[in-house]
């Protein structure tokens, strides 16, 4: 017994855990350093062995220089020195000159050993790394060490009323011990939260950094695009994501919706109050039944309880009157958010450059939009009406249990909450990569399906149906592999949460039952505890789901945020004005342009088109003819030179005003999945039906449309697949005629037409283009004989220029092209004649054929 007294204080025993309203100091200061030393020394030794045997020295260039790491190291040393200082102070008689308990010496020595080993592990992780380690951040040993140390310091609050602890600050010893506790508390808290960020370690796996560095050296570029380059955590750039969400959280300019938001928040606060009073009134009913209270009192209590349950609904308030009312009022706010997000994103996509749209994957973009817009509504709903209320309920419950029952119940709730939330966050962060990979595979599968259906004709041409089906099946199988990993990890998370909740409920129920049996609590108190704790665990059980949903929403939003962050390649200047159209003079002056660096498409191109003139561009495919039209329409910005219309630099005016004066008939016409009338009306959406028909007559397609069963109401199908190539092109010409622009760009506008139709449309185009500046890209030279100026483009440069007769007289590139086309036309004519002769021979009797041949 004397040994026990020399180890603990007088009249105390290490076997006694609870002493005068608090944890026994002897028990606490023996248990805590033992656990910490076991964590750091025992498990840390295994980590050191593995790091030295299977690890490698990190190259200094990959180790980030961080002030936070220096702070991490300094705080660790400060905590270690605090233990040494406290032990020296107590040994020197600072504790009042009495006997120095053995547990104080044990606490100081073991704590210093444990923290010294933790500092060594911290420095080891900064110097060495496991080669096969695919994770980032500190090891589990260090994170668990800091978490336990911080939790242990929080346990001191349980002993708030105990005279054996320092909270009273009655003498110098307690004041010094309180100061040392403050150093430990803020030190361990700082280390725990800094440890989650791991400032002294690379942000990505070390082997990935090495591989990227090798590819950079081999490829000679500083950028590597890979899936691994995506953020490891969905909470990365959290502030940026929240700032993008802010405009959708508060409906600006709509007082009614703002009032609905405030009303919903008030109802949310009312729900928190009701959640506290429901178990209290349930307890009162039980106590009044057991105490034999009057019927009037009992009936009043029951009515109030039923009213509160009606307002609250289920245990989580999911189906109560207030919750349903709040959900009903929130519908308009949710619709506003959904509408604003989709409209802004749709407008942003239309503002992006042609380069981006040529490289996009339509199915991928559509899936990203669908998931992204729905995820914003989910985020707002979960954060405002699930996460915040759940945290508020947890805080209120801890305060209530500590106040009404005792500190043990608050401790049980706190430990369960802490373990539950910590493990939920850790496991959910671990599951992030599976969810992200599942989204990627889902996008791939949908993109393959959309791409295959859009190219239905090509699939049929090459009998590739089975190939496309197999490709889609392979994509589905890859998606299902990722889906299985996601669902399996979810099941593991749910089981972990269930174990924590069950253990907490068991411990609290046993303790409460013990106090009831001991006479300290009434039966109603046990009912109160059971009701309240179950009511608390219900939203807590959903907390993991809410957190996963929020994280999944962030993952789903990543692709949408990426769309929002796509920069516009072609932008209007800040003070850009409208194009002041006068006569339609077009000038290219020393224009240089390239789609990608290092390969010039246009080199020093200069020409002038006078108002009302027609300029023709001819040349080999890929020489840059269509690029000239795209630059004039300002699909791209040039790298050098200047493009002017009526003396105004088109890069200095608004794109909308520029394109309002230009009409384009493209080489490849794509129509909307609508009727013919609306497709033609797209040239000017305010045009009347009569104007639409007049444009169709001018484009020589009116009679063809009238021959259709439904006339102008005939559906053209997706991308106009129900029409022939010539019909689609004539619809495009009718659109341009309806727009009535001052400048017309024709990109091989009659390439898909037969000879007779081409002649008819050429006549129509001649009328439309009269007195208008026209630039024509032509393949058939016979269609541009009457052009005022012809430019022969070769390798991005203007090789020849002049009128038709002048270019033929030069005997250059244009003359060669003309001769080849004439020879090809003569050959086609001869083939047609021979075909007709063979057909006439087949119609004659055999004798006639023979006689003819003999003759």
TrEMBL record:
Cellular component terms (Gene Ontology): early endosome membrane; endoplasmic reticulum membrane; extracellular region; Golgi membrane; lysosomal membrane; melanosome membrane; mitochondrial outer membrane; multivesicular body membrane
Biased composition range(s): Low complexity: 821-832
Compartment annotation: Cell membrane; Early endosome membrane; Endoplasmic reticulum membrane; Endosome membrane
Principal subcellular localization: membrane
Gene Ontology terms, MF aspect: ABC-type heme transporter activity; ATP binding; ATP hydrolysis activity; heme binding
Pfam families: ABC_membrane, ABC_tran, MTABC_N
Reaction(s) this enzyme catalyzes, per UniProt: pheophorbide a(in) + ATP + H2O = pheophorbide a(out) + ADP + phosphate + H(+); heme b(in) + ATP + H2O = heme b(out) + ADP + phosphate + H(+); uroporphyrin III(in) + ATP + H2O = uroporphyrin III(out) + ADP + phosphate + H(+); coproporphyrinogen III(in) + ATP + H2O = coproporphyrinogen III(out) + ADP + phosphate + H(+)
CDD domains: ABC_6TM_ABCB6, ABCC_ATM1_transporter
Annotated EC: 7.6.2.5
Domain (ABC transporter) ranges: 586-820
Domain ABC transmembrane type-1: 262-552
Keyword terms, alphabetized: ATP-binding, Cell membrane, Disulfide bond, Endoplasmic reticulum, Endosome, Golgi apparatus, Lysosome, Membrane, Mitochondrion, Mitochondrion outer membrane, Nucleotide-binding, Secreted, Translocase, Transmembrane, Transmembrane helix, Transport
Enzyme type, top EC level: translocase
Source organism, top-level taxon: Eukaryota
Disordered: region residues: 821-855
Family affiliation: Belongs to the ABC transporter superfamily. ABCB family. Heavy Metal importer (TC 3.A.1.210) subfamily.
The protein's assembly and partners: Homodimer.
Protein name: ATP-binding cassette sub-family B member 6
Organism listed in the record: Esox lucius (Northern pike)
């Amino acid at each position: 017994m004397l040994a026990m007294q020399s180890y603990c204080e007088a009249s105390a025993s290490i076997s006694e855990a609870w002493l005068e309203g608090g944890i026994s100091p002897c028990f606490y200061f023996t248990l805590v350093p033992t656990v910490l030393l076991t964590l750091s020394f025992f498990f840390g030794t295994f980590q050191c062995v593995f790091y030295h045997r299977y690890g490698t020295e990190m190259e200094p260039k990959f180790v980030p220089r961080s002030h936070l790491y220096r702070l991490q190291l300094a705080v660790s040393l400060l905590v270690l020195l605090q233990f040494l200082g406290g032990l020296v102070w107590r040994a020197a008689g600072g504790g009042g000159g009495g006997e120095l308990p053995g547990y104080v010496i044990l606490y100081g020595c073991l704590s210093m050993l444990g923290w010294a080993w933790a500092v060594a592990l911290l420095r080891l992780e900064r110097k060495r790394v496991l080669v096969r380690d695919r994770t980032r951040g500190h090891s589990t040993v260090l994170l668990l060490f800091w978490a336990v140390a911080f939790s242990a310091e929080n346990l001191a609050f349980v002993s708030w009323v105990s005279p054996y602890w320092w909270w009273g600050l009655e003498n110098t010893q307690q004041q010094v011990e309180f100061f040392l506790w403050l150093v430990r508390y803020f030190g361990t808290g700082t280390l725990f939260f800094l440890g989650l960020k791991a400032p002294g370690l690379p942000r990505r796996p070390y082997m990935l950094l090495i591989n990227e560095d090798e590819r950079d050296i081999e490829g000679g570029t500083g950028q590597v695009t890979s899936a691994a380059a995506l953020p490891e955590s969905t909470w990365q750039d959290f502030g940026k994501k929240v700032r993008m969400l802010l405009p959708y959280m508060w409906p600006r300019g709509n007082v009614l919706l703002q009032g609905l938001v405030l009303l919903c928040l008030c109802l949310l606060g009312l729900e928190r109050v009701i959640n506290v009073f429901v178990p209290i009134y349930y307890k009162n009913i039980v106590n009044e039944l057991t105490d034999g209270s009057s019927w009037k009192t009992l009936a009043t209590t029951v009515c109030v309880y039923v009213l509160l349950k009606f307002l609250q609904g289920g245990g989580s308030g999911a189906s109560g009157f207030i919750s349903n009312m709040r959900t009903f009022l929130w519908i308009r706010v949710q619709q506003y958010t959904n509408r604003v997000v989709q409209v802004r994103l749709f407008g942003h996509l239309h503002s992006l450059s042609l380069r981006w749209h040529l490289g996009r994957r339509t199915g991928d973009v559509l899936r990203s939009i669908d998931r992204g817009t729905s995820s914003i509504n989910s985020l707002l709903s979960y954060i405002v009406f699930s996460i915040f209320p759940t945290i508020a309920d947890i805080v209120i419950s801890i305060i209530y249990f500590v106040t009404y029952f005792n500190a043990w119940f608050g401790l049980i709730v706190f430990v369960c909450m802490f373990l539950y939330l910590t493990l939920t966050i850790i496991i959910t962060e671990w599951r992030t990569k599976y969810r992200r990979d599942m989204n990627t595979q889902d996008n791939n599968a949908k993109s393959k399906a959309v791409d295959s259906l859009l190219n239905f004709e090509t699939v049929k041409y090459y009998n590739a149906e089975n190939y496309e089906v197999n490709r889609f099946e392979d994509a589905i199988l890859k998606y299902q592999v990722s889906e299985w990993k996601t669902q399996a990890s979810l099941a593991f998370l749910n089981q972990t949460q269930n174990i924590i909740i069950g253990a907490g409920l068991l411990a609290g129920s046993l303790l409460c039952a013990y106090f009831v049996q001991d006479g300290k609590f009434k039966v109603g108190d046990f009912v109160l505890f059971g009701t309240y704790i179950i009511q608390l665990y219900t939203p807590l059980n959903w907390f993991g789901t809410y957190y996963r949903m929020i994280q999944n929403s962030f993952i789903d939003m990543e692709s949408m945020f990426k769309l929002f962050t796509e920069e516009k390649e072609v932008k209007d200047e800040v003070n850009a004005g409208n194009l002041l159209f006068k006569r339609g003079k077009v000038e290219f002056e020393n224009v240089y342009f390239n789609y990608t660096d290092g390969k010039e498409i246009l080199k020093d191109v200069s020409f002038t088109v006078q108002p009302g003139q027609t300029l023709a561009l001819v040349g080999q495919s890929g020489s840059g003819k269509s690029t000239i039209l795209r630059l004039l329409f300002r699909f791209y910005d040039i790298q050098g030179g200047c493009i002017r219309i009526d003396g105004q630099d088109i890069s200095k005016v608004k794109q909308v005003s520029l394109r309002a004066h230009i009409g384009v008939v493209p080489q490849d016409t794509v129509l909307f999945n609508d009727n013919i009338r609306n497709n033609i009306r797209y040239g000017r959406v305010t045009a009347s039906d009569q104007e639409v028909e007049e444009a169709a007559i001018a484009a020589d397609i009116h009679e063809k449309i009238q021959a259709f069963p439904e006339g102008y109401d005939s559906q053209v199908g997706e991308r106009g697949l129900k029409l022939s190539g010539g019909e689609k092109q004539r619809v495009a010409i009718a659109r341009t005629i309806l727009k009535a622009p001052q400048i017309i760009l024709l990109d091989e506008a009659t390439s898909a037409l037969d000879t007779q139709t081409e002649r008819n449309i050429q006549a129509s185009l001649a009328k439309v283009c009269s007195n208008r500046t026209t630039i024509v890209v032509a393949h058939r030279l016979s269609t541009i004989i009457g052009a005022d100026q012809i430019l022969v483009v070769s390798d991005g440069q203007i090789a020849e220029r002049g009128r038709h007769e002048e270019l033929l007289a030069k005997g250059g590139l244009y003359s060669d092209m003309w001769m080849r086309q004439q020879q090809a036309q003569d050959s086609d004519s001869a083939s047609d004649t021979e075909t007709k002769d063979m057909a006439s021979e087949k119609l004659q009797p055999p004798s006639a054929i023979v006689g003819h041949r003999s003759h």
